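S., here's the first fold you wanted:
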Amino acid sequence: MAILNYSGGLNAAGPQTTAQRTLGTAGMMQGLQANQQAMQQQAEQQQAQEAQLQKQNQARAEGAELLKNGTPDEIAEFGMLNPIVMKDFIANAQFKDQQAIGSRVQYAQNILSGNIDPRKAIEARVREVELAGGDASGLRRTMELGDEDIIKAAEKDLAVISPKAFSAYRKACKAKRLQKIPKAKRNRSRGR
């Protein structure tokens, strides 16, 4: 008895020729290549996302270290380069709202302007925070510091919350110091 091959009969168009089989195989290969490319793109996207996440985590760690041990200048520079990370830090500080953040900036600017006694500025800020139902314990701890340390704390606050405002403050301080130096002495120090 002969074994009959019905595989060609299963094709709706009739038996396949060698050319049709080759084209079918080529089409399957193209499909496999397209699938492979899609998988490769997906893997590359995942790698890019992981690299971005690693970069963000590294920036957060660097920022946290700066908040603990950095100078206000370093913090402000970091904040301008990493605004998203700084927004996260500010959000973690649990300010009541944007108005509270703005008030903290104003408080720091009042102290740094030198136009108000730092202790009076803190006392006013404590009253403001407590009237709004906030926690002023950190401000009360700041009140225990000496005037110079209060100014340093205000600089750090401003550097964290508003790096651009801190940078402007630093430039103004530098310009003020230059104004105090006699013009002839400034020219000599520049090599003129």
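And the second, which I think is the more interesting of the pair:
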Amino acid sequence: MNEPFTEVYDAIWTLLESQSGFATRILAGNRIKLTGDGLDPRKETILDADVPEAYLEPVAGGEWHWTNQALRFTQLYELTITSGDFRLDRSLFPLKWEIIKLFGKNRTNLDLDYVKNVRLVGFEDSRTDPEANRETLTWSFRAAIAVDMKWSNAELQENEE
């Protein structure tokens, strides 16, 4: 069995990039991915061409439940969108709507057998988020994504030496 958290992280990006409304609004270079080669792909300061920006990170993983047969575990990821515009109708609201539509129609397993459900569990809008906005006059939002996973006891003991 492969390490699941990177697989889920990459699968969420694949899902996001499959939504044309997301992919056309956020350029590939502005999709900050925390897997791969770069040690810290985030930009400390942002220029006009750097936004809108999407940033996905794991934020919590704590809901877990053991049974005699399996482990159920919920990992939370947070998608931060920096809009690059103070006007709500130019970027923030259209991107938020694309995310809602995407997860509304794709409450699936991300094509991973151990993923049982993917769902949005919250949104937070801000024009004063220093980490997302980096001292620019812009709106941002954070979307919390819960991923429910389940592994049998046999799967958890695979390759154990």
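Why I say that: The two ends are 14 Å apart (CA to CA). The CA atoms of residues 154 and 161 lie 14 Å apart.

Talk tomorrow,
H.
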